[in-house]
Structure formats: C-alpha cells, structure tokens
Amino acid sequence: MSYAEVYQSWKDDPEAFWMEAAGAIDWDTPPSRALDDGAAPFHRWFTDARVNTCYNAVDRHVAAGHGDRVAIIHDSPMTGSVSKMTYAELQNRTALLAAALTAKGVETGDRVIIYMPMVPEALVAMLACTRIGAIHSVVFGGFAAHELAVRIDDAKPRAILAASCGLEPGRVVAYKPLIDGALEQAAHAVDFTIILQRPQHPCALTPGRDLDWNAVQEGLEPAPCVPVPGDHPAYILYTSGTTGAPKGVVRDTAGHLVALHWTMRNVYNVAPGEVFWAASDVGWVVGHSYICYAPLIAGNTTVVFEGKPVGTPDAGTFWRVIQDHEVRSFFTAPTAFRAIKREDPTGALIKDYDISSLRALYLAGERADPDTVHWAQRTMGVPVYDHWWQTESGWPMVANPAGIEALPVKVGSPTKPMPGYDIRVLGEDGTELPAGTLGAIAVKLPLPPGTLPTLWQAEERFRKSYLSTFPGYYETGDAGLIDEDGYLYIMARTDDVINVAGHRLSTGAMEEVLANHPDVAECAVIGVTDPLKGQLPMGFVCTNKGTTRPEAEIAADCVRMVRDSIGPVAAFKLVAVVNRLPKTRSGKILRRTMVAIADGSDFRMPATIDDPAILDEIRDRIRPLGYGGTALEEPAPPRT
Ligand code: COA
Ligand code: AMP
Fold first, then answer.
1. Measured in angstroms, how far is the CA atom of residue 143 from the centroid of ligand 1?
2. Which ligand is nearest to the CA of 306?
3. At what angle are helices 145-155 and 551-565 packed, to 10 degrees?
4. Could you give the CA distance from residue 100 to residue 164 in angstroms, rounded to a whole number?
5. What confidence tens digit (pLDDT) does each residue in 217-233 have?
6. Most Cβ neighbours (<10 Å): which of 133, 294, 417, 528?
7. How many domains is the chain built from?
8. In a domain, 494, yes or no
9. Which CATH number goes with the domain that contains 557?
10. Exposed/middle/buried for residue 148 (C-beta within 10 Å: 0-12, 13-18, 19+)
C-alpha cells in the first residue's frame, strides 16, 4: 500500500485501523474496541483491555525464543566502555529491581521518580516500574535541584531511583547533593531512594532513606508483570509550558504500546533484530519513546549512548557508533549535526568509518535548517528525514513514512501527517486557512493512541492549555502552514516556549527566577537565534530605583540563579540590564519586537507601543552581547 492509501484507510475507519495495529501487542485481555469517546473531548484508548508494558518490551521476546538477542548496547565514550545486554538479561534485571520496589511497598499506581544519566540501568528502572504498574517520571539530569523538587511535589512519588553521578565533558555531575537539595526543598517526602553507585563518583548513602541498587535486590525472587487497564498511566513526563510550573504529560499504557510499535516499521523502517539508535537522553520524550520503549516493544536493539556529538573524543563519534553497532536507523536533533558540521565542516572524519549499515537519518526536536539537512545528506549519503512531534504526542505527528513509502523530501518540511493525525492550519477565529497560509497548527480530535490523555492531576489545565482555543481541536502551540501538496512547514511557537539545542524550555520559568533577585524590579526573557543551538535565552532586567549594586554583578547573579534553579541545560548566559522594557500602552511586554531586534530582522513598529525610543536602548544594550546587529539566517521560505 502507498502512504496515501494507508492514511486514507485510517481516515475511512480509524477504529478498524487501530484495532488492526493492536494485533501486534500481546494482551492479557484484548480490547473489544479502540476508542472510548464517552467523555469527549477527553479521549481514551483500549480502555477495556488489560496489558503490561514491560511484558511487551521484554518478556515476550524472551518467550518467543529471542532471549539471546541484544536488547541494549551501552556505548559510553565518557567512560571508554561498551557493554551489551540481551533480552534475557534485561528481563532478569528488570524483574529483580521490580521485586525490590514491591518489597519496599511500591504498588500499582504509585509514582517513582527516576533521575539517571545515560546508563542501561535507566531503562531497567523505567521497565521495572511499568512491570508492576508503578508510574515513573524521569527527570533530566541537567535540571537543578529546584526543578527536581517541583516534580517531586507534583508527582508525589513513593521513591526515587537514581545514580550517584552523571558525566559531562570535563566534569562529574554529583546527583546525591541535587537529590538531597530537592528533597529539602520539596514539601513531599519520599519513603526511600535506590542509588546506583557509579565508580566514577560513588556517594555516601543517607541511612534509613537511601538504599544501594545491588544490595536491595539481593535474595529476591524476580517479580512478574502486572497487567493493568489499557488507560492506566505508564508514565508522567514533565515538559515546559508558559509558566514556571511544568506540565505533567501523562502517557497511557495500551495506546502507547500500539502507536510506538506501529512507528518502528512504518516510520523508522526497522525490522525486529535490527539496531536502532536515538542519540538523545532518557530525560526527554525522544528518550522515552525511541531509546527505551519503541525499539524494545518492536524487538530491536537500542543504543544507549553516553557522550556528545563532538568532543567525546571528536566529531567522528557518531560515525564510529553507527559503524561499530551496525545501526540501521539513526535519530537525533539538528543541533547535534550543527555541532559536528562546525568542528568538521568538510566531513573529513566520516571517511575513517564504514557507515554502510545506515538506511536513513531522522531529525526532530527543533527546526531542521536547510543548511544542516543538505550537509547531512552530502556527508552521510543517506536520506535525511525531518519529522515533527512533541512531548505531548509521544510519537511523530508528521513524518516521512519511509517504511511504507519514502515520499519525496522537501527540505524545510517534516513531510506529511501520520495516520491518526488530522492536521489543520487555523486562523485566530478558528477557521481553516487555505494552503500556503500561515496559522496555528491544530489536530482535529480525537488525538490518536499514545498521545497525552491529560495532564497529571490537572484536567482543567489540560483543557485550558490544549483544547479551549479551538474547540474540537488540539492546539499544538506551533505555527506553520500546509502547502498545496499537503506538506507541513513549522515556522514558530505561538507561546513563550523556546527550543535550546533541542531542549524545550520556558522563558516564563526563567522570568520567575529573575524576578526573585532583590534588585530586579521587572524582567523579560526571550529566545534569540543561535547558529549552534537554534535558540538561546536572553534576559532583560530593570533594576529597582536606588539600586547601588553594579549592573555587571546583577547580570552575573541572574546567570547563576537560573543555573542553580533551573539547571545548566537552560544555557542562560545572556543578560542585559535596561532602564525600561518595551511595552504596549496597556502594559504588555513586546517580546516579539525584542526578538526581532536581537536577531537583526526587519519588524514593523507595533502601533500600540508606549514609547518607541525604548527600542534604541534595547539595541544598544544587547550589542555588547553580540546581538542586534546584522541579520542572522532567516527561516527558509517554504517551497509551496
Ligand atoms: N546532566 C548535567 N548537565 C548537563 C546535562 C546532563 N544530562 N546535559 C547537558 N548538561 C549541561 C552541559 O554540561 C552544559 O553545561 P555548561 O554550561 O557547564 O557547559 C549545559 O548543560 C548546556 O548543555 P547543552 O545544551 O547540551 O550544550 P553543550 O554546549 O554541552 O553541547 C551540543 C552542545 C549541541 C553538543 C548538545 O546540546 C547536544 O548534543 N545536543 C543534542 C540535542 C539532543 O540530544 N536533544 C534532545 C532532544 S532530541
Ligand atoms: P518537545 O516537546 O521537547 O519534543 O518539543 C516539541 C517542540 O519542538 C514542538 O512543539 C516544536 O516547536 C519543536 N519541534 C519538534 N520537532 C520539530 C521539527 N521537526 N521542526 C520544527 N520544530 C520542531
């Protein structure tokens, strides 16, 4: 079947489409129907089924005789080690950790926070939770104690599973002080933590609270998989919204299994037993879906890579990993390729490696700029597929379905909607816009299986954030257009979310931190264009009248505060102290105008601006930071 036929078959009969896809999953009680729209606009999938995620990702492959197949390859240039774990070993390790959780009183529905670097035990931890129906919430290691505390207070976990440290180039990130700090800040207390001691930086365990990863499992019988209802939450993943309070995106169990399995063959074009590599981090949705769950559900070998695209040890690392592990499909963020291109512009290093195993490169997480796509195509000699999705969707909304049919690539477009997604571009009043017209990108409800059914204990916030602007649609928060051939183009976010090196961050959260500085009267944070990371946050602060502290010190405080509160991943280093912020006459800060000034792009003076002269000061203050001068690269116009 062609892509058009597959997509049409879903449109004609979504229920039949998803019930057929559900045939790939091993059910304890099979579903009698796919969609449950009894509480529309809140939709649930496969609600009357019973199923276990870990069984489908691990045990069933062992039961089918593939226990010797490699499930996880851990390749760590940070420690100079490579190790492999078969499906049988993964089953054993997962079942023992699950037994330890059970022995300590963790039950189905309890939450468990996972705070771990890129080690195979991170996947073991996720799977051990889903094995017993506990709901995990993985927190990215680059977040600081405060962000961890916010998540602890929202998820109210029974336990934290962590490692003693993460490894960043040139420094060890000790996790224990971060965990201690977070637990001190949080109102909620956990019953216990389980800590994986890494030889690079073991930590002292707090008696009565911290347990050793290995010791806690000793002498236990492996725990069986616990079947849960189809709409039981498998995990919560916090993501940035417009305020400092992150959104707890909930993923259900059955829809997640069905949808992820479908994508491995149809989007990523890999067969069971083949090696799939997503170079991301378990702390992000890409890590959840495509380092951990999807490749394992589909019986692939997944690569857990602990390193960076450059500097570990050089810009040839990706090519080495592809060669050494015979990677078939590779997924990363465009920023990683921009980093490689900057170090090795001619692609000289790739000549030392044989990457003939590779079929295609998949890019997502941020806009794939045409320069980077062309460079990757030229250097690697394989198709480069941009695809578009978000934490909320959990799997690609718009992609090139290479496993069904490789559609012609239009550089700048992530291609076409996947089955399940009826994507429309809407005007402010909610009317559908004609082809080629820029508007808000929305998905007609219901969203397909595997997407978020709600936000964790925040149904009203879910409704307000996603369902209320355009009744009958899910609002993606992205703006763009669909061309006459049905190709989608993503142009910008419609909210205050920015994307820094493929990491989704909230400028609102950073503003909340800056506002806590005793000398700061008012502030704004915007995302400015950066040739490596796509965007960087830039802060503007107005000080209180009579402040005597030098501006440079206030700026340095601000940088430190964001790093300490949100984490190094915010990459917040640009601060300008200004007398006033540009505002409309009604007091709204003109952030878009500030972005245009910083990026050196043309803009129309807002008619409602209170005092245009303020813009000159903004320009003067950001020039020393290297911004506000000549125009940087503009987004490529879509080819319609
Ligand atoms: N734990 C602790 N700190 C972390 C971290 C982690 N897991 N991940 C990143 N950090 C720190 C970095 O050490 C850096 O700290 P520094 O300010 O002291 O240097 C800071 O957070 C910013 O990190 P990053 O944005 O990753 O920048 P970088 O300069 O270290 O590397 C790239 C730049 C492009 C090489 C890197 O961002 C990259 O590999 N990106 C790939 C994108 C990706 O995987 N996205 C996930 C979604 S698909
Ligand atoms: P996250 O939830 O962290 O995956 O971030 C999702 C957001 O990243 C989307 O809403 C987009 O703004 C952006 N994004 C993801 N993939 C792409 C893409 N292929 N092209 C442009 N933007 C993207």
1. 11
2. 1
3. 40
4. 19
5. 999 999 999 999 999 99
6. 294
7. 1
8. no
9. 3.30.300.30
10. buried
